[in-house]
Amino acid sequence: MDDIARLVAAEQIKDLKARYFRFVDTKDWAGLRSLFCDHATLHYTDANPDNGPEPVDKAMAFIGHTLADATTIHHGHMPEIEILTPDTARAVWAMEDRVFWPEGSRNPYGLYQMQGWGHYHETYERHGGQWLIATLKLTRLRRLIELQPARAL
């Protein structure tokens, strides 16, 4: 690949990741799923520290359930994108997210608010001219959480 083709691929991967953040924040679950290869795996290490990556459809169900009634704000920064071949790439993204659940939420962790900082470690494949996420692993450097407030008796 020449330098121009590498730059174009990197920009397309940036657009892909921007859609990932927007689709999570707007709860466009079908749009979010469309960003992944059918054989993709996801590993949210803070939510599932003892298990490895999960198949994409199982991970999509977890995301939809956990964030169903939450307001989320996701930011990705400073991507380190490496184009490996014309159809494969990898990247590390610095990230920050904020998640706010309404009082009385039935999220599986009993959380009220969460703020996190860390990195997305991803691989990508190009299928039919379209870049897709093949693997996603989120590692956190720090996380602040607030549990749901206790209810008065």
Give structural notes:
There is one protein chain. This protein is α+β, with helices and mostly antiparallel strands and 153 residues long. The protein has one domain: Nuclear Transport Factor 2, Chain: A, CATH 3.10.450. 25% of the residues lie in helices and 48% in strands. The protein has three helices and six strands. It has helices spanning 3-25, 29-33, 56-66; strands at residues 36-44, 54-55, 71-85, 88-100, 111-127, 130-147. A six-stranded mixed beta sheet has the order 2-1-6-5-4-3. A hairpin with a 2-residue loop joins strand 3 (71-85) and strand 4.
Major pleated sheet: 6 strands, mixed
Structure summary, number of beta strands:
6
Provide mean pLDDT, rounded.
93
The N- to C-terminal Cα distance equals 66 Å
Question: What count of structural domains?
Answer: 1
Radius of gyration: 17 Å
| CATH topology name | Nuclear Transport Factor 2, Chain: A
Low-confidence stretches: none
- CATH architectural grouping: Roll
CATH top-level class: Alpha Beta
Q: How helix-rich are the residues, as a percent range? A: 25-40%
Q: Looking across the biggest beta sheet, what order are the strands in?
A: 2-1-6-5-4-3
